[in-house]
Amino acid sequence: MPPVLRVKNVLMIFAIAMACCLLAEAAADTRKKPSASRPCNCKKDSVAKKSGKAAKSRKKTVSVPCHPRGYVDPAIQKNLNAAFRDMKKAGIRPAVTSAWRSSAKQASLHRCSNSAKCRIQHPGLYRAKAPGTSLHEAGFAVDIAGVAVGRRGAKRLTPRGRKIVQIMRKNGFAWRYGLADPVHFEADPRRHGYKSAKQAIKVSQSRCQVKFTSASKARPKARRKTGRG
Ligand SMILES: [Zn+2]
After folding, report:
1. CB 100 within 8 A of CB 72
2. What does the radius of gyration of the chain's CA atoms come to, in whole angstroms?
3. What's the CA-to-centroid distance between 175 and ligand 1, angstroms?
4. Angstrom distance (rounded) from CA 45 to CA 135
């Protein structure tokens, strides 16, 4: 073979080898690219799923009064605390069965107390006043269990009940309905900065509203219906 042809053959082999190397590298790159891009796609998916959930929960927004269970107006909290201290000294552990109520709850109790069937189902319920008229809606009334015994219409004070009535009166709470609603004690809003019971109810019912993102959170728990005022 002449020397010129030999050099051409060597160059051709070298060129083929280089081409093979470049093709192999290109193939390796295309294998890497999809796995590198996958995490970005997953993140987008999760963000899309999260925003979808948020949109769903925003749909169920409701307002409810948000005073906690056992709430009374701050103006009478000291009186109630003093009464509880006196009871403790007398060896009595008071069981408060009802304090502040929303007007919706009062309406429900009022409906129940007007139904013979519902009253049989809830023997602890006395004649509940119409919504907008009960001092429970103002945070000026509390119901305390264990004051009287006996069937409805023939109740009598227990020794413990007599002591509770005495202590509550001493601390500014009237036993307003006596044995007709023995659990009920209330203070007068007019002695604590309000013009009337109606005004105190209006203030308490509108002072505190909160928005929940889920309707299920706003649904009140089923509780035993008790009390009157
Ligand atoms: Zn009551």
Report:
1. yes
2. 38
3. 10
4. 54
